[in-house]
Specification:
Rossmann fold, alpha/beta
Length: about 550
C-alpha cells in the first residue's frame, strides 16, 4: 500500500516551530509502531544552504550522503529514526535547476515549461520518492502562507489531496495566537486570517497548531474552530515549553497523533512514550549543573550551532545535569584579559566555522584549557586550531597556522584537502558526509565509542598536514583517529589531560536525546568531574566555590 501524507504548513509569521512540530508528530507516530519519513521544502532560490551565511540561515545540517540541508532535518533525526538523505530537503533552487537541466536536454519535447504542471509535478515526484519506503510521510513546507515563493509548494500539496483523496492526506497548519499587552488579551484574528489565506488557495486545514506563550481558554478554542471550519478537538495549543523534548508529550496530551491517524484511516497500537517522559523528568529535575563555554564565530545567532547545543543537552541529560551554556564571541578573546573571561567554566568547546575572523581568540581559549587542565572539545575548526596552538606554544613553531588563514605561513599545520587543489567553487565542493575512522586503542575516543571503527559526518575543506606529524607527536600530541587508509587525521588528543580531544568530523549531527553521542557524553562527564574537583579544592582552601553545588540545584 502506498504511503499517506501529513503536510505541515505555517502562517502569520515565520519561526513558529514547524520543524519541531513535524518532528514531534513523527516521534508520536513512531512510538505507535508506524514507519515514518520526513521532508522539508524550502522556498528560497539557493540550491542548498551550504553557501549561505550562518547569520542568515542558521546551522547547515549534513546527512550521511553528504547533503548540506536545512537545520530542521536535525530535528527530524533527533526525534525519529528516519534515515535522511539529500532527497529529504529540496529548495526552489534545486527544483528549478532540475527542470532547466531537463529542458536543455530536450526532455519536454519542445513544450512550454510552466509552474503548473512542470514545477508542481517535480515537487510531487520528490514527495513520492521520499514516501516510497514508509507508511506515513510528513512533509513540511517552509516559509509562511501568503509568501509568493511558497505558492508552487502549496499548490502541489493541494493537488496531492485531489489525487490521493482525503483519507490519504492530512493538513496541519501552524499559526500564532499573540498576547496583546496593551489590551491584556489573546487575539485569534491572525489565525483566522491565516486559515482564510489557505482557503483562498484551495486548502482546508484539518488540524490547527496554535502557538501561544500562555494558556488559551476553552471558549477561544471554540471560536477558532467555528471561524476556521475545523473540529474543536483539532485546535491544538502549542504552548511554549522550557525543553523542546516536552513538545511530543504536549502534543500527545492533546491527541494530535490520534487525530491525524483518524483522518488518515490508520489503526495502530497505543504510543509508548516512557523514554520521552524520562528525558523530560530528568530535564526538569537535574541533580546539579555543568557550565560550558562555547567559543565561536557565529554566537550572536544561536541557531548557527543548533545541533551542537542540543548534543551538549543530551550529554548533560545522560548525567542528570542541567546544561548552562555561555556563548563567547571568539574575537572578544583576542584581548589580554582573556583568562578572566574564561575563568570558572567547567569545560570549553570550540566548534566549526570558516574564515580567519576570531582565530587568535580561539587559540587563546585552547591554550587556557590546555595549560589549566580544563576539559576541551574541539570540533572541525576546533581540532585544526588545537593543532595550531600546540605547534606554536608546545613545539615552538613560531607563526604556525592554516593555509586558510595565512597562505604565507612558514608552518602550514593545516592545509587544503589535496583533492580540492585548484577547485574554487564554493557549493558542495567540501569533504562532505559519512566517512569511516579507525580509533587507536586506549584513547579517549576508543573508550567513549567502545569500538575500534566508527563512521561520522564531515564538512570541511582543510586537513591536518601529516608532514608535521612527527614534530607534534614527538612533543606529546597523539593522533588517535585516522581514515582506514591513513590519509586523513580525524582525531587528536593530549594524553594526561583530563579531557582534551579534537575531531575533524561533526559528531553533533548524530546525537539524539535518547541516544547521546559518546563524545558529548564523555566531555560533559569530564567537565562535571572537573567542576567537583574544583569545588572540593576551593572548600579545602577556605573559599566559596564558583556557583556552589546547593545553589545550582534546580
Amino acid at each position: 500500500m502506498s504511503a499517506k501524507y501529513i503536510f505541515v504548513t505555517g502562517g502569520v509569521v515565520s519561526s513558529l516551530g514547524k520543524g519541531l512540530a513535524a518532528a514531534s508528530i513523527g516521534c508520536l507516530l513512531e512510538a505507535r509502531g508506524i514507519k515514518v519519513n520526513l521532508m522539508k521544502f524550502d522556498p528560497y532560490l539557493n540550491v542548498d544552504p551550504g553557501t549561505m551565511s550562518p547569520f542568515q540561515h542558521g546551522e547547515v545540517f549534513v546527512t550521511d550522503d553528504g547533503a548540506e540541508t536545512d537545520l530542521d532535518l536535525g530535528h527530524y533525526e533527533r526525534f525519529t529514526h528516519a534515515k535522511l538523505t539529500r532527497d529529504n530537503n529540496l529548495t526552489t533552487g534545486r527544483i528549478y535547476e532540475q527542470i532547466i537541466t531537463k529542458e536543455r536536454r530536450g526532455d519536454y519535447l519542445g513544450k512550454t515549461v510552466q509552474v503548473i504542471p512542470h514545477v508542481t509535478n517535480e515537487i510531487k515526484n520528490a514527495m513520492r520518492k521520499v514516501a516510497a519506503d514508509c507508511e506515513v510521510a510528513i512533509v513540511e513546507i517552509g516559509g509562511t502562507v501568503g509568501d509568493i515563493e511558497s505558492l508552487p509548494f502549496l499548490e502541489a500539496i493541494r493537488q496531492m489531496r485531489q489525487e490521493l483523496g482525503r483519507e490519504n492526506t492530512c493538513f496541519a497548519h501552524m499559526t500564532l495566537i499573540p498576547w496583546i499587552a496593551a489590551a491584556q488579551e489573546l487575539k485569534t484574528k491572525p489565525t483566522q486570517h491565516s486559515v482564510k489565506e489557505m482557503l483562498s488557495i484551495g486548502i482546508q486545514p484539518d488540524i490547527l497548531l496554535c502557538r501561544s506563550d500562555r494558556a488559551v481558554p476553552r471558549e477561544m478554542r471554540s471560536k477558532i474552530a467555528a471561524f476556521c471550519n475545523v473540529e474543536e478537538k483539532a485546535v491544538i495549543i502549542a504552548r511554549d515549553v522550557p525543553s523542546i523534548y516536552e513538545v511530543p508529550l504536549n502534543l500527545a496530551e492533546q491527541n494530535v497523533d490520534t487525530l491525524a491517524l483518524n483522518y488518515l484511516r490508520i489503526d495502530s497500537k497505543a504510543p509508548d512514550l516512557t523514554k520521552w517522559q524520562d528525558i523530560v523528568q530528568r530535564a526538569y529535575n537535574p541533580q546539579d549543573v555543568v557550565s560550558i563555554a562555547i567559543v565561536g564565530k557565529y554566537v550572536e545567532y544561536e541557531d548557527s550551532y543548533k545541533s551542537l547545543k542540543e548534543s551538549l543537552v543530551h550529554g548533560a541529560l545522560s548525567h542528570n545535569l542541567k546544561l548552562q551554556v555561555t556563548w563567547i564571541e571568539a574575537e572578544g578573546l583576542e584581548a589580554h584579559n582573556y583568562p578572566e573571561q574564561l575563568a570558572g567554566f567547567d569545560g570549553i568547546l570550540v566548534p566549526g566555522g570558516f574564515g580567519k575572523r576570531g582565530i587568535e581568540g580561539m587559540l587563546n581559549a585552547i591554550r587556557y584549557a590546555r595549560e589549566n587542565t580544563i576539559p576541551y572539545f574541539g570540533i572541525c575548526l576546533g581540532m585544526q586550531t588545537a593543532c595550531i596552538e600546540y605547534a606554536r606554544n608546545v613545539c615552538g613553531l613560531t607563526g604556525a597556522n592554516s593555509g586558510e588563514f595565512d597562505p604565507a605561513t612558514p608552518h602550514r599545520i593545516i592545509y587544503k584537502l589535496r583533492e580540492l587543489t585548484g577547485v574554487e567553487e564554493m557549493g558542495g565542493t567540501m569533504r562532505l558526509g559519512a566517512w569511516a575512522c579507525v580509533l587507536e586503542p586506549d584513547s579517549l575516543a576508543h573508550k567513549a565509542y567502545g569500538t575500534s571503527e566508527i563512521s561520522e559526518r564531515h564538512r570541511h575543506r582543510y586537513e591536518f598536514n601529516r608532514e608535521y606529524e612527527a614534530v607534534l607527536t614527538g612533543a606529546g600530541l597523539r593522533l588517535t583517529g585516522t581514515t582506514p587508509d591513513s590519509t586523513y587525521v580525524e582525531i587528536v588528543e593530549i594524553p594526561g589531560h583530563p579531557f582534551f580531544l579534537g575531531c575533524q568530523f561533526h559528531p553533533e549531527f548524530k546525537s539524539k536525546p535518547l541516544e547521546p553521542h559518546p563524545l558529548f557524553r564523555d566531555f560533559v562527564g569530564a567537565s562535571y568531574k572537573h567542576r567537583q574537583e574544583n569545588a572540593t579544592s576551593l572548600i579545602h582552601e577556605g573559599h566559596t566555590p564558583h556557583e556552589a553545588v546547593p545553589a545550582a540545584k534546580a
